[in-house]
Amino acid sequence: MMLRPRAFALEPLWARPFSIYALTPKTISFFIQVAGRGTAVLAGLEPGAPLTVWGPLGNAFAVEPEVRTLILAGGVGIAPFAAYAKSHPEPSRLSLVFGCRPPVAAYPYKEIAGIAAAEHFRERGPGDIETFIALLGERIRAFRDGLILACGPQPFLLTVKRLAREHGARLQISLENRMACGVGACLGCVTKAKVAGDSPEQAFANVQVCTKGPVFWADQIHLEGEEPWT
Amino acid sequence: MDLSVSFAGLTLKNPLLTASGTFGYGLEFVDYGDLRELGGIVVKGTSLTPRQGNPMPRVAETPAGMLNAIGLQNPGVETFLTDYLPRLPWRETAVIVNIYACDAAEFGELAGILAVEEGVAALEVNISCPNVKAGGIAFGQDPLMAAQVTEAVKKRAGNKPVIVKLSPNVTDIAALARACEVAGADALSLINTVSGMAVDVRRRKPRLANVIGGLSGPAIKPVALRCLHQARGAVKIPLIGMGGIASAEDVLEFILVGAHAVQIGTANFLRPDMSFRIARELPGACACFCVDSWESFRGSLIVEKG
Questions:
Q1: Is B129 among the catalytic positions?
Q2: Which residues of A fall within a CB distance of 8 Å from B68?
Q3: Which residue in the set B53, B271, B272 is minimally distant from A206, CB to CB?
Q4: What are the residue boundaries of the structural domains of chain B, listed by start?
Q5: B203: exposed, middle or buried (Cβ count in 10 Å: 0-12, 13-18, 19+)
Q6: Which end of chain A has the least Cβ crowding within 10 Å, N or C?
Q7: In terms of Cα–Cα distance, which of B173, B175, B213, B208 is closest to B194?
Q8: Cα separation of B266 and B244, whole Å?
């Protein structure tokens, strides 16, 4: 969904994209981490403050009720998974591994842990990242015949993608590219994605994350900071 | 009042067009409004062959504006004609194709392809994209080159009106406007984005992969009005104004300074129904500012001499 408070006036200019955290017939909720001016204004809104809202944009994570599904979330990347877990027809087949730096209580971890098998890991100091990556590797290996879903910061996604490839696991990731229009027009949020093409130069295209994503099969896209395709 | 406007062989139901690159092919916006409410759509810059555009990041938010360096990503003219144009309501809303090429001959070839398409109302010639350059200089910065491109397009465009889009990144925009008029342009549109840059001190990096990009949005409206004013004084052909328009009152400002029509650009990113809203608000704004007809209002800016 795109959110633009009337309080933005002409600055910040763009709406901000968020995943849907919770939905009822009368309300829609977002889990927002203050990361800059736009999110700071959003976090400071009073009840009843007017907003321009459009969406939902693009696609969503795959739901495969018969398949063991591993959710990998880093930090605020946990936001889309609360509703995913609650609406999943077979939550007994879901597992969550969650990593964060602030206390885990700052995140909607417990509400997923109440439905699905869940474990969390908090980074507190040097060496913790290596331990977390080892844990991710073990869990990804255990789910190599299942489905893996990931959302989180770019280094986290790069690591998860590498590990999934090593273990031959099916992985979907949700991207958080900077967006302006949210309707697929500005071409500001694109990611390199594989397309059917005759020559190597035509084998990829820049596709809009806002309308063609934000969820992609990991082996179909090229992440920023990743080695080029061979 | 009658909101329609006719100029340069075009008849529009109102003077509102969407600016190239900010409205895709129009189809991206059909969930948010009826394209037939608009005077016209200027589609994404189109080249002879597909272009992938520049590396990411391509956009950056700036005070009351944004920078972009998309680099004219587009699927090429053939895909436009087969996949997009047939789905647009071109009988009711003018579809203007913004064209980009690397040299005058290629511009002519593109014009020749589009000249025979019934659904194309006019061509807008992009000689001013700051993100793509051939031979180290943009065509739009040299009156001679601008004239050569204008002539090449005009020669092959058949009966399609040729609109040349000017850059503000020049010392003397009046000279560019005159060069294009003499070369046969039917109208001019101005301005394209203002060359700019943004940096991230923490990461010590430019905010765009291309380093330099084009500034747009409300931040550039004063530059746009100034360029329009100077071009208005230099040429007789109709002008299409743009740069930071985000309300019906902004539209009237550009018409007051002498524009026949305007383009809404970056404001489409503030909310996807922006152009449709402005179309609905325009009659009220005309009444509010006592505008009776475009003919009497256009260029009626009172400049005290002394």
A1: yes
A2: 180, 186, 188
A3: B53
A4: 5-297
A5: exposed
A6: C
A7: B213
A8: 7
When CB atoms are compared, the residue of B21, B23, B271 closest to A52 is B271
- Helix ranges (H only) for B50-187 are 77-79, 104-115, 143-156, 173-182
Q: What's the CA gap between B261 and B254, in Å, rounded?
A: 8
Distances (CA, A) of B160 to B94, B140, B145, B156, B187: 12, 21, 21, 9, 12
Q: Which residues pair with A95 in a beta bridge?
A: A70, A117
B90: left (phi over 0), alpha (psi -120 to 50) or beta: alpha
| Domains of chain A, CATH where assigned | 2-54 (no CATH), 69-175 (3.40.50.80)
Are the C-beta atoms of residues B240 and B125 closer than 8 Å to each other? no
A190:B73 CB<8 A: yes
Question: A-chain residues within 8 Å CB-CB of B270?
Answer: 4, 13-15, 52
Which residue in B272, B224, B276 sits closest to B248, CA to CA?
A: B276
* CATH superfamily membership of B5-297: Aldolase class I (3.20.20.70)
B contacts of A206 (beta carbons < 8 Å): 52-53, 73
ipTM of the modeled complex: 0.93
* pLDDT by residue, tens only, chain A of 230 residues: 999 988 778 889 999 999 999 999 999 999 999 999 999 999 999 999 999 999 999 999 999 999 999 999 999 999 999 999 999 999 999 999 999 999 999 999 999 999 999 999 999 999 999 999 999 999 999 999 999 999 999 999 999 999 999 999 999 999 999 999 999 999 999 999 988 766 655 678 999 999 999 999 999 999 988 876 54
